[in-house]
Design goal:
Blueprint (H helix, E strand, L loop, with lengths): L1 H11 L3 H25 L9 H10 L2 H23 L4 H55 L3 E6 L4 E4 L1 H7 L3 H5 L12 H12 L4 E9 L5 E11 L8 E8 L1 H23 L2 E7 L4 E4 L1 H7 L6 E3 L12 H5 L9 E9 L5 E13 L2 E10 L1 H40 L7 H23 L6 E2 H9 L7 E5 L4 E2 L1 H21 L8 E8 L8 E8 L12 H6 L9 E8 L2 E8 L1 H4 L2
Parallel strand pairs: 13-15
Antiparallel strand pairs: 1-2, 1-5, 3-4, 4-5, 6-7, 6-11, 7-8, 9-10, 10-11, 12-14, 15-16, 16-18, 17-18
Helix pairs in contact: 1-5, 2-3, 2-4, 3-4, 3-5, 4-5, 12-13, 14-15
Length: 580
């Protein structure tokens, strides 16, 4: 097509052969007119020159055609003058008509020549664009990363690109002898037939995953896409074939599916549910196990406010805070939910915050902690019972030496046994009151002075005891623990120190370290008098209570100084411990 247009364009322009033909036609016309006029005596009309002008106008340009017209008009007038000796008005009219006709003919042919040349240039430009597009298509077709082929309606391969040859291992001529069904495994040939049938039913394209069989017998997974191209006014139909190797993609998908199955199995075995909170939308999506833990019917997505029906009001702020953007990456809260069956369950929500596009999401897992918490509480209760039993055992073991010491400290007044019994029973009852305070496990709070005075009450009449300090009320837990420390100091003093010596003195005082609002309370227990076994420091349950070997039962920074002539014990209580 391009060569034909180039030939046609070259023939539109004048050539030497055209010039020769034009001169011959003009010469022959003039000679014939002269012969007819001079020798035969027959005048040739001017209109007979018009065909000659048309021929010259077709072969030559406008100027040559006009010049030939002038020449023929002049030749005709000269011959008529030779024949008739003069020119008539009719001759001049005919000559002028010939000139006008020749000019028009030359102009018309000139315009037609220009239009034809312009049309040829446009056609040539379009043809060049088509050639360039075809060249780019062929370049892309041959160098594409996907396998491309052209086939007919029956699936016969007509042309294949380089990539398809590499994928299948065939040479181009070998592949041209096959069809699409011969390139796939027998089990997948029905899928290829279905794709071709879809094109027959009018579908523009159709695709499926099939296994392509290489020349060496190995198979690989590929995405086969067929699209039809039905030329206008044509009875044949071509099929464009695209083959994409998806072996790695499919292997990755299978691996991902296997990992998901393992993850689902792990979550199921661990009785965990998955959840996702869209911070922007304020919605919660969860797995079936997640909604089961909350005691709610399974649903793909719920608004966060819907969970308020089951979440404990005291724990709702923890969950509501999850829809607020936070710089913290990890998310870990424990909430209580009241299920529809009335049971209260502890649920842990653990996850992290991530960005998905322009959305901030919190994703994680949910676990039912109720059984674990119940086990923890049960263990704590058992440990507390064991501790109480140990404390009671220790207290009872210390009770009898104290009673013995009381008996020894009280002399019989004037050999009055009744009076002696009365005094002894009074001291024992005082000791019983202290013991009851230590044995009480309900809420206990009281004045610090009363706790000290109650513990030392049995010895106030027989020993030199001083108690001083500001009036303070301590909370229940601190009061019970502090009473145990007092009891331990008293018992130790009875066995080894001032309370076991008739000349012993005990001074107890407490005061704030300074006037600061956050200062500690400093408690001092000071004994003076000869001690028994002053060089022996025992490390038992009592030492653990007052903190000789570490942290005391209450307070901090304990100090114990023992010498042959006394004992000093110091303890600090923080503001948080002594404030109600």
């Amino acid at each position: 097509m391009g060569s034909y247009l180039r030939w046609l364009k070259s023939n539109v322009s004048s050539t030497p052969l055209a010039h020769v033909a034009s001169l011959l036609v003009l010469a022959v016309s003039v000679i014939l007119e002269a012969i007819n006029t001079i020798y035969i005596g027959q005048e040739v009309t001017f209109i007979a020159f018009i065909p000659v002008i048309i021929v010259i106008g077709y072969l030559e340009g406008r100027l040559v055609a006009i010049a030939a017209t002038l020449l023929m008009a002049a030749a005709g007038l000269w011959m008529r003058r030779v024949l008739n000796a003069q020119l008539s008005a009719e001759d001049w009219t005919s000559a002028i008509f010939l000139l006008v006709s020749g000019g028009l003919i030359a102009s018309v042919f000139h315009r037609l020549r220009q239009d034809l040349r312009g049309a040829l240039e446009v056609a040539q430009a379009r043809l060049a664009a088509i050639d360039a597009a075809e060249s780019r298509y062929r370049w892309a077709f041959e160098r594409a990363a996907l396998g491309f082929a052209n086939a007919n309606r029956h699936g016969e391969l007509l042309q294949s690109n380089r990539r398809l040859l590499e994928m299948t291992g065939y040479a181009e001529k070998e592949l041209a002898q096959l069809n699409l069904e011969g390139l796939v495994l027998p089990d997948d040939r029905d899928a290829v037939r279905a794709l071709l049938k879809d094109l027959d039913n009018g579908a523009a394209s159709s695709a499926a995953d099939i296994r392509v069989l290489r020349k060496d017998g190995k198979a690989f997974w590929a995405r086969l896409a067929l699209s039809s191209s039905r030329p206008d006014e044509a009875s044949t139909e071509s099929v464009f074939v695209v083959v994409d190797d998806i072996s790695e993609r499919r292997a990755a998908r299978e691996a991902l599916r296997a990992q998901k199955e393992w993850l689902d199995l792990a979550l199921s075995a661990g009785r965990l549910g998955t959840w996702r909170i869209d911070i922007k939308e304020g919605t919660v999506a969860g797995s079936g196990k997640f909604w089961d833990i909350l005691g709610m019917p399974s649903k793909p997505v719920r608004s966060l406010e819907e969970l308020s029906a089951v979440v404990h009001p005291a724990d709702w702020p923890k969950l509501a805070a999850s829809v607020k953007p936070s710089p913290a990456v990890n998310y870990d809260v424990e909430i209580r939910v009241r299920r529809m069956d009335g049971h209260v369950r502890w649920v842990a929500l653990r996850g992290r915050q991530e960005e998905h596009g322009d959305r901030a999401m919190r994703i994680g897992v949910a676990a039912d902690l109720t059984e674990r918490r119940q086990t923890t509480l049960l263990r704590a209760a058992v440990k507390k019972s064991e501790r109480i039993m140990l404390e009671d055992r220790h207290r009872f073991s210390n009770l009898f030496p104290v009673i013995t010491a009381l008996v020894k400290m009280i002399n019989v007044p004037e050999n009055d046994v009744a009076k002696y019994k009365e005094m002894l029973i009074d001291r024992i009852r005082t000791l019983e009151s202290t013991h009851l305070i230590l044995s009480r496990h309900s809420s206990l709070s009281g004045m610090l002075h009363d706790l000290v005075a109650q513990e030392l009450q049995p010895f106030k009449e027989t020993r030199d005891i001083t108690i001083s300090g500001p009036s303070l009320t301590v909370p229940s837990g601190v009061a019970e623990s502090f009473a145990m420390i007092l009891h331990e100091l008293t018992t130790n003093s009875v066995k080894h120190g001032a309370l076991g010596d008739s000349q012993g003195k005990v001074g107890v005082k407490w005061q704030f370290a300074s006037d600061g609002a956050g200062d500690d309370l400093v408690f001092d227990w000071v004994e003076s008098g000869r001690r028994k076994n002053s060089n022996v420091v025992r490390h038992g349950f009592g030492s653990m209570i007052i903190g000789v070997d570490g942290t005391p039962l209450v307070g901090h920074s304990p100090k114990l100084e023992i010498s042959e002539y006394g004992l000093r014990y110091s303890l600090r209580l923080s503001r948080k411990e002594i404030e109600l």
